Amino acid sequence: TTRQAIQGIVHDPRGQIVFVDTPGVFEKTRDPLTKQLNAAAREALKGVDLVIYVADPTREIGNEEHIVLRMLDAVTAPKVLAINKTDLRNLPFIEEYRALADRFDRVVSISALHHLNLKPLVDAAFELLPVGEPFYPEFQFSNVDHRFWLSELIREKLFIQLQEELPYSTAVEIDDIEDRETKGGEKIRYIKARILTSGQQYKRMIIGAGGRKIK
Length: 215
Prior knowledge:
Order of helices and strands: EEHEHEHEHHEEH
Strand content: 15-25%
Strand order of the largest sheet: 3-4-5
Largest sheet: 3 strands, parallel
Oligomer: single chain
Number of helices: 6
Structural class: alpha/beta
Radius of gyration: 20 Å
């Protein structure tokens, strides 16, 4: 559900890696938002020095994966296949993804949830990336600001609460951030945010009966 290409910076004695987390690729492109997300994903592939394709072996290779693989075939940069969720016992389609190995320069099995084998993934990135000058100072770890992260945290909670019922078009805007002190002397951070959605039915779902969902 990522809307824009978010950069995360890794600082290491060997150098600096700028990871670009692209929007997802959607098979159906009927609405303007989905078309925009697919276009942003394609645009993000231009000029990169390495592609890491994170695969979900609990899902069969379907049309969306084939779209991604065709996009990657057109990329001349080195490619790494990172097979995710390998902490799970039941991975019904893992052999399908392993069969793609000849289309990639490296294959690494990882678990993002449990931080399993992330070091070998970073090691592979350093081996395959070209040498160049650092883009960011050592104190910077992303290209997005604090308000963006707060809005994404709130949006994440919406998707967890409502799952498939919530439209991808739902957005969050942060209006105010203020540090306050309670009567008991406790310091709290007050955040005022607006949830934007595309229809009254979704508004009712987000608020819930008696305001239970929004609470």
